[in-house]
Write a structure and sequence with these properties.
GO terms for molecular function: DNA-binding transcription factor activity. The chain has a single domain, classed as Winged helix-like DNA-binding domain superfamily/Winged helix DNA-binding domain (Arc Repressor Mutant, subunit A). The chain is 64% helix and 7% strand. The chain contains six helices and two strands; from the N terminus they run H-H-H-H-E-E-H-H. The longest helix is centred in the last third of the chain and has 25 residues. The mean pLDDT is 92.
């Protein structure tokens, strides 16, 4: 067997900012997932609830775009949270075929509890980095978003 000398990635692949971002995101997601499990919630549920809270009335297709998941994944999540009484669909005032999503009181309560857990993860990061570096990191991440945004 002969070895192909051509490497599939550049020599710096594991030292790139994008790889560090991915590792950090996976670590944060794992911490949130583990802690939210005690509430019977997944990170995807939290993401949906907080997005609907911040932008009530979103339709499923737009919500899927905001969460970067398929419309089928959103439909499944909405059905699950609707079954728990945490979200409700309402008919759009002008387009009767569009269903808007809104939090119910149970959804707001679930979001409050989940957000407290996520805030603990946030505090763990701030404690490890220090307040000023944590704020600097947040600002840099905002800059990363702007740098790669395609308008």
């Amino acid at each position: 067997m002969t070895r192909n000398e051509e490497e599939p990635v550049g020599p710096d692949a594991l030292d790139r900012v994008t790889w560090a971002l991915r590792r950090a995101e996976l670590a944060v997601q794992a911490a949130k997932e583990q802690r939210l499990r005690a509430l019977g919630m997944a990170v995807s549920h939290y993401a949906l609830l907080i997005t609907v809270h911040s932008q009530p009335g979103l339709a499923g297709a737009e919500l899927a775009r905001r969460l970067n998941v398929t419309p089928q994944a959103v439909a499944s999540l909405v059905a699950r949270l609707e079954g728990r009484g945490q979200v409700e669909r309402r008919e759009h005032p002008r387009h009767r075929h569009i269903q808007e999503l809104h939090l119910t009181e149970a959804g707001r309560e679930a979001l409050r509890a989940a957000d407290a857990v996520v805030a603990e993860v946030e505090q763990q990061i701030k404690d490890a980095l220090g307040a000023a570096p944590a704020e600097q990191l947040r600002a840099l991440l905002d800059e990363v978003c702007e740098a790669v945004r395609e308008d």
